Amino acid sequence: MDKISNHPTEELLAAYSAGSLPLSQALCIATHLEQCRDCMHELQQLDRVGSELMQQLEPAPAPERLKQEMLDRLDSLEDDSREAVFGGDPSIPRCLRKFVSTDYRNMRWRRVSPGIQTVELCRDSNGARVELLKIKPGSAAVTHTHSGDEYTVILEGSFSDEHGLYRKGDFVVKHPRDRHTPVATLDRECICLAVTEGPIQLTGFFGRLLNPLLRRNYA
Amino acid sequence: MRTMESKEASNNRLATLSACMSKVAEQRDKSAFAELFDHYAPQIRAYSLAREPGADLVADELVQEVMSRVWLKADKFNPRLANLNTWIFTLARNCRVDYLRRNSRYVTEIDPTDIFDNIEYEGPSPFQMAHQSRAEERIRAGLKALPREQSEILTTVYLEGKSHQQASEELQLPLGTVKSRVRLALKKLQVLVTR
Questions:
Q1: A171, A29 contact by CB (below 8 A)
Q2: Of A112, A175, A186, B194, which is least surrounded by CB within 10 A?
Q3: What is the distance in angstroms between the Cα of B138 and the nearest Cα belonging to chain A?
Q4: Euclidean distance between CA atoms A146 and A150, whole angstroms
Q5: Where are the alpha helices (DSSP H) in B103-174?
Q6: Nearest CB partner across the interface for A52, out of B59, B115, B143
Q7: Domains, chain B, ordered by start
Q8: Which of A8, A104, A95 is nearest to B111 (CA)?
Q9: Considering chain B, what percentage of its residues have pLDDT values greater than 70?
Q10: Does A170 touch chain B (CB under 8 A)?
Q11: Disruptive mutation site among A41, A44, A46 for chain B (greatest number of B CBs within 10 Å)
Q12: Does B94 touch chain A (CB under 8 A)?
């Protein structure tokens, strides 16, 4: 594992540990965790905090019949939970294999600008859009701001913007009004997992012309 | 909050419960399972009621869900990798997330199994093992010593399952304050890893 330099904040990881994040954001965190030993270690600590908090609650006794019912049912219990996926292409994070079964290249990419393609994986129950973005080597995305938070995890390649360089495994959050122009580095195309909570706002003359189209797409 | 029992008592109890867990895994021992139920069911119910006060049926359902997983996945629990209390907490959290997803108005294809069960915990080194039980004790003592506003925010996030946004509305605090209180509390508990 290469050393990763951009991580989720501790309070975001704590929300993941608490199970209080929208699933789309939790998916981004899980994608990062699979590649980041330090955050994994941090998560284990945070789970311990949750465990200690739970133990400090005043216990709420269970009715006796609940226990009896459980004991009577044990022999007929069947494991119908879907097993977590460990097989499949090791270059694709396990938590994404449900959506990307073989290769990023076999997805139904849709061109949004000369340098950028996208494929929507799903929506979260809060409406957030979960998608993959593919940026051609050296291509710049249009400068944009966000109407909601945008979460990005880099799956392949790297990109840079006004604030720095982001590589495979890096976790990046942009808040509303953070204006940025991501540019994929020259050596190869960049593939990211992106979760957007609201439509992005393009800035600049052409960008403003495109905004109504984007919003229509988002709705 | 419960009064604290002694360190020794809680360590002994954890050892007894872990032994029950191996009996369940290896011998499918139902009386050992009943012992685990007696200890954990009231905790799981309390955890559910913290989020939905008064919802006894939801709490009972969570108990059934978690304890079924304990029975079915007993062989997946590895006492060398995790503490039993922490394992139960993660099961309860995963079941609650799953319950909320199934009952949400807009169903999403994102499956909590992929998010939470897919994570491979790496085994701790012997050095970490030696520090593991101390880590739990340190967190327990640290929680007791937290200023009220910081333990309140951890309770809101972990037990009531509120997002930072919901916490900020409920406690009438700016979002930034909610986040910095969580961060401060974690710093005091000394659980932050250099990343």
A1: yes
A2: B194
A3: 10
A4: 7
A5: 112, 126-145, 148-154, 164-170
A6: B143
A7: 7-125 (1.10.1740.10), 146-195 (1.10.10.10)
A8: A95
A9: 90
A10: no
A11: A44
A12: yes
Sign of the Cα pseudo-torsion (A88, A91, A95, A98, in order): negative
Find tokens 């069960």 and name the residue. Answer: B117
Residue B101 has pLDDT above 80, yes or no: yes
Q: According to CATH, what is the number of the domain A94-218?
A: 2.60.120.10
What does the pLDDT look like over A32-69, one tens digit per residue?
999 998 899 899 999 999 999 999 999 999 999 999 99
Mean pLDDT of B182-188: 95
- Give helix A10-18 / helix A23-33 axis angle, nearest 10°: 110
User: Which chain B residues have a beta carbon less than 8 Å from that of A84?
Assistant: 113-114, 117-118
Do A131 and A99 contact (CB within 8 A), yes or no? no
Q: pTM of the predicted model, to two decimals?
A: 0.89
Paired tokens of B159: 């037990």
Chain A contact set for B119 (CB, 8 A): 30, 33-34, 40, 43
For strands A190-196 and A164-166, give the pairing.
unpaired
Position A31 scores a pLDDT of 96
DSSP code per residue over A115-164: TEEEEEEEE-TTS-EEEEEEE-TT-BPPPEEESS-EEEEEEES-EEETTE
Residue B122 pLDDT class (50, 70, 90 cuts): low
Q: Which helix (H) or strand (E) holds B125?
A: none
Burial (CB count <10 Å: 0-12, 13-18, 19+), residue A145: middle
The residue among A184, A183, A180, A212 whose CA lies nearest residue A199 is: A212
Segment holding A63, helix H or strand E: none
| Cα gap B66→B75, rounded to integer Å | 15
User: Two tokens at B152?
Assistant: 């309140």
**Is there a contact between B32 and A43 (Cβ–Cβ < 8 Å)?**
no
Task: Name the strand (E) or helix (H) holding B29.
Answer: none
- Tokens 């991580």, located at residue: A7
Neighbours of A105 (CB within 10 A): 9
Domain ranges of chain A: 94-218
